[in-house]
Protein 1
Amino acid sequence: MRRLTLLITIFAAMIFSAAGASTARADYAVLRSGLRLHITGYERSGEVVRLSMDGGTVEVQASDLLSVEPEDQFAALPALAPANGPFGNLIHAAALKHGVNEKLITHLIAVESNFNPRAVSRKQAQGLMQLIPETAARYSVANIFDPAQNIDAGTHYLKDLLERYRGNLPLALAAYNAGPDMVARYGGIPPFPETQKYVRKITASLASTTAPTIGK
């Protein structure tokens, strides 16, 4: 039970990060998993550390917080190595730009298009991250089949959904698949088998790749 609670806590911290803090001073929390979160403050209570950031707070186990680095010092650190696999450099760049876990982006692309940049669904969702034309236009995508533009816009949209649902990944994924209007209508994950399977598949895949980094 403790391990499950810890996994959920770290899982939430990994996907909920905000870029471009509006405060004059911000720091970066460096987690054992390798994730760096842009924070505006933090407070320790026993074995739990509460991280404050634009849009809300997340809690992590104290043992999983390696350090808190000043923003100016963090800026001088080298970037993480690009991810391996198809379009790894583009995924890595989008993850850094928008503050979204690149493993999450990778798993989402795998489910959406199986890394086919020319994929088109029966609902006319297109490209690697299966953007519908309206979403592509919202994020100023000129060529929806261009991998760089598609991944950047899809990641930006995913970040906006994560912020909208205050870091609740299942709701953000449900909205990505079925649309925010459906999530609002049903007050949660819509009762559509496709959407429910979609959410389960991505969250399970992400949990399986992050579980080895969880404290024992």
Note: The domain at 88-212 is CATH 1.10.530.10 (Lysozyme).
Protein 2
Amino acid sequence: MRIKVLGAGGGEVTGSAYLVETDHARVLVDCGIFQGGKKVEGLNRFDLKDVSNLDAVLITHAHLDHTGRLPLLSKMRVPAPVFCTQATLELTSLILRDSAHVQEMDTNRLNRKRQRAGMKAIQPLVSHEDTEDIIGRLIALPYDRDLPVATGIKASFAEAGHMLGSSCIQLSIEDKGSVKKVIFSGDLGPKGAPILKDFEELHTADAVFMETTYGDRDHKPLNETVNEFIGIVQTAVADKGKILIPTFAVGRAQLMISILASMFRVGHVPLFPIFLDSPMAIEASKIYFNHKELYDEELLEFIRQKPMMEDLKTLKMCPTSEDSIAINNIPGPMMVLAGAGMCNAGRILHHLKYNLWKPETHVIIVGYQGSGTLGRMLVEGAEKVRIFGDEISVKAKIHTLGGFSAHAGQKDLLDWFSHLAPVRPKLVLIHGENGPRTALGAKIKELYGTEAAYPALNQDIFL
């Protein structure tokens, strides 16, 4: 049996994809897209020999760095079914369609420039047809059921606590007369995060492929971050200012809405208008609202006492561009949740352009800001920024809250592995930059005596 690292190896965080091959079956675990600069994005092509004759694809969760290359399988005429949890199926469909739309728009824009330069037009990585074909092949499986997905291979999905529907995948593989247990952690969430249940404890494995995104550090405690958020909102309301929150559409938007509902119910602040200005976040929120069976007990008790929407009477959904433009005419205090999360695209740019120069505006950064993005410039204290070609003076108050991460920090990663450590599995550390994954590996060796492997991209791991 061999497992080939086709993504999120060699110090890469994105592009998760792992080919499991036995004498009788070929199964792909995750099929993510590489994200970053042109050099990294250039890796987003499969070698046909790696994905031909696939029997099945298994998806840990819906984020693009775990699902974004799925339409390529359709483009390459690889007919394998794709298995995941029900919530992952719904969110993957939403995310892939949005990704195809963005790719098409970006390609059309680039082709207009190429046409003016007398250059040949290019095609997007995937088409809408490819996307719809692969969405039609998504098959939902329940949590915690050992079900056959290929000859000699059964799969079971366990709660990972990272996003709605996220899972660790446990494979039971018949190999030369014995059964091997191989676990892929997927992305693990922090313990005690709002909305979702904590990750499930797993106890048996012959091999573990474990993520290491934050393997070298812990996040600020959530309760401290929430208290800081409450304080900022109270100040902004007193200032009668607008609060702008660049928001990732899936996960972060729903987290912020749940925290706001709690704030209003307890009376930390009086009701004020909130605008969810993101068509994708609106659709993702509907999926979240429809999967209460995945909520943690704290949120279930909260909504048993009173429906959450009764606390959110001033929340307005803004699906159209006209809805978004109308927000400009509404005075503060008010809040806008809009994408993109790194301020590198989307409706948040318009709100920043019209409000960054006002001293009473508060911008709250609640997610990671990539190098070179407008969000990173604001975090780093830029006094002026350029938006849609106009130079904008930054007079608004910029707040950075780092405790809302959906990823487990080092302490929680070690907690997750501690339940597997007694059986001394082969440990393969993936999905992390080299600093974090080697730091986590050193800590695991110190605590449990387990030596980790650090595979490179396209390396084979033999069991």
Note: The chain has a mean pLDDT of 94.
Protein 3
Amino acid sequence: MNNSIVTNILLVGVGGQGILVAAEIIAEALMLAGFDVKKSEVHGMAQRGGSVVSHVRYGEKVYSPIIPEGETDILLGFELLEAYRYLPLLKRDGKIVVNNLKINPLTVSIGQEAYPEGLSDRINHFFPDGRMVDGVALAKLAGNVKTANTVLLGALSRLCGIDEKFWVSAIERMVPGKTLAVNRKAFELGRSS
């Protein structure tokens, strides 16, 4: 990507999905590639499965960590409903990578509402070039279901225009040594999905 333009990545999902770790890895990979990077997150009630949003902005010079409304270049959705909720923030020609996973919000769990049907189809309707990734299945294939966030990073990595070596270095720096091999495998599976 052009170094003089600011590129905006919005990560959305629910607490416990590793979104903040994923944002740290993205920021690290982009810094290693020579970009100025700013990052911000909103936790909500993350510990209880609430919404989590993280902004990552990069370019030659970035002045604010918050993505202006409607300026998201890439939406990385860790859960279907959260991804769908944040589609209006995506540029018309934006890219989307979504984990094909449903996590019931509290209102659905207690029977007040029903989980919306057909979200994958709705997302594909608005963004037909988007990528639906079965992050959980690929993480299991890698050897640990908790690496679904790294699977999604692999899928995202193909859209950011930086060499794979920066992603691998960032993962090596940011994940515990004992989980490095499984995270590398998860990243590779996501990148080739």
Note: The chain has one domain: 7-134+156-173.
